[in-house]
Amino acid sequence: MPTQLLRTQVTHTPPVVRALETARERWSDETDGKLLLHLIEEGERRLREQRSREIDDRRVELERMSARYRGMFTESLESIREGCPE
Q1: Considering only CA atoms, which of 27, 35, 30, 36 is closest in space to residue 8?
Q2: Residue 29 lies in a domain
Q3: pTM for the full predicted model
Q4: What's the number of CA atoms in the CB half-sphere (13 Å) around residue 46?
Q5: Which of 2, 60, 66, 78 has fewest C-beta within 10 Å?
Q6: 39 closest CA partner among 8, 84, 4, 2
Q7: Total domain count, the chain
Q8: Neighbours of 36 (CB within 10 A)
């Protein structure tokens, strides 16, 4: 079908063949092209989920670290600056 969108050609290397065989277990009636689309969509979804978990984990760690030092510095920034020459 004619399209103005970019197209990508994929060589059936051993890893690609394995991926297609695995995808065929789930989507048995699909063509190789459709299987590749399913794999791309599934991979993208998983990567987004992983990235989201990593961001959440970082936020939790930053909160843990900031809680550890909370209350350690009681002086205001202005009072600290008073003792420092410009």
Answers
A1: 36
A2: yes
A3: 0.68
A4: 6
A5: 2
A6: 8
A7: 1
A8: 17
